[in-house]
Amino acid sequence: MGLRSTRIRGPLGRILAAVLLGATALTGCGPTANVVTDVGATGGTPVRGGTATMALPPAASPNWIFPIGAPGYLATYNKAIQNLLFLPLYTAEKKGDALTMDSPRNLAEQPRYSDGNKTVTITLKKGYTWSDGVPVTTRDVKFWFDLIKGNKKEWAGYSPSLMPDDVTAFETVDDRTFRLRLDRAYNPAWFTGNQLDSFLALPVHAWNPQNEDPKTAFARLTQHAKQFSQFATDPLWKTVNGPWTIEKWNTSGQVSLVPNKNYRGPDKPHLDRVVFKPFTTADSEFNVLRAGGVDYGYIPPSVMAQSAKFKEMGYRIDPWDGWAITYIVLNFNHPTAGPLLRQSYLRQALQYLIDQKSISKVIWHGSAAPTLGPVPAGLLDGEPYPYDPEQAKRLLAAHGWADRDGTLRCVRPGTGAAECGTGVKDGQELRLSLLSQSGSTETSNTMQAVKSEFGKAGITLDIRQQPLNTVLGTTVPCKKDEPICGEWQLGFFGTQGSWYFPTDPSGEKLFATNAPSNMGNWSDPRTDRLIRDTEYSDAPAAMRDYGREVARQLPVLWTPNPAYQVSAIRNDLRGIDQNVTLTLAPQDWYFVTKDGAGK
């Protein structure tokens, strides 16, 4: 096994070389199995049936089935699987270079805006039923709406003043049509992409036969959703309207789905079964992939040089890019780190110490690119804090930090322009701790590179790693007096990207005050105002102004945004569309053979 490196000159090159040499390298370890298929990447005769196994991300296991998200259970693979069971009214898919909400998989027709964009009328498509044969109606959508309205603070998708607060009335027109009265006029593209994307129909006849009030029903359903070991057997989760139903869901996170025989959509499954298989690390997944043990897996970026050998083995290599950004979360409410992180000069210094370009090139082997701000990089026109360690040191010195016996400490406490800032104590050490997800060599090496750069500027960074679900369950929005707020200072859960946007990459769920995914508790009136501008106006300047300002403010630290994964897919498995929003459509997958024989 050899180490293949890219030469980067200077101090960072030595740091990255040390990081990489200190890690187990997979480069040079090619596939060990025989060719898994004699079908090329094109051609072949489609066959019906078969089982396709897809590898889940490292240290990630599906653990939430109730399609109303709860804090700490927001991993993309949870939602992706839920959407295969319970159809969203609207889902995003790529159309050319843009994203559209006009998908044939939608449960509803395109929304109709009227009354100066203050009223939205929605009609469900004809013919859809639940798996027990009961028709899907507006009553099922109203059930979902009543649940989130009556329990909005328990819903992880809730942002104050947005859904459901922005709907003043839900009016049922008939069994297939309903009307939303809004509290003001909204940008239709934003409202469809970022508000209506949450809407679902839930089987009220099966989930609330006693007509309980929304709070009682929600509490009961949530209790069922916490019984992880019973996801496959609980009758509640058997009533679905999507193309798939649960066959098995074990406590290790392996999920097996089979076709819903009563599915009425246009995209009925071709396969007999699809299996989502968890792995503790990317290395363990790679070993199974090399042995031909998964049909749809991924290769670590460090072994990109082995792509040709995988192609010889019968796989095609396809990077799965996402409509995403990646970052390190900063907990502004932490009792001791919070006062430090609230200093804008300190956040700027920390950002100047992250060499995104070199980390993307060396550690991620070109499968990542710098995050420039709160929207995908293509929507921004520059990096406000490019790698500049000397500027970082100057900023810290100018604000009262100096080396004392090998440790950077505050020597000028106070709130003046040349002092350490509000809440920073005399003699306080500049030391931070980072909770990062485990299972990825690239993530581990990235954090070690950041730690080394911080250390050269006198900043101590302590790193501990935990499985992704643990990190997501810990790095949640919190108040200063809540115990969990003292459990983490910085957090990272971005091995496959930290945040995947809906069609409109506005920030109401990320950086608005009290937003559901505002993990670090950032709050800034100007940010809130700019976010509202993107919600109300479709002018390009609104999104541009928001992106530039929040990139400059640094509510988080921007880090390289990786491809979701570098996929390795069997040549004889077709129909896969790697959606940039990370939705899955295994109902479109099918196998092919040369001679048309069954698989």
TrEMBL record:
Transmembrane segments: none annotated. Its main location: other. Residues 106-498 form the Solute-binding protein family domain. The keyword RNA-binding does not apply. Gene3D superfamilies: Dipeptide-binding Protein, Domain 3 (3.10.105.10), Periplasmic binding protein-like II (3.40.190.10). It is found in: Cell envelope. Keywords: Signal, Transport. Residues 1-25 form the signal peptide. The keyword Transport applies. Belongs to the bacterial solute-binding protein 5 family. This is Peptide ABC transporter substrate-binding protein. It comes from Streptomyces celluloflavus.
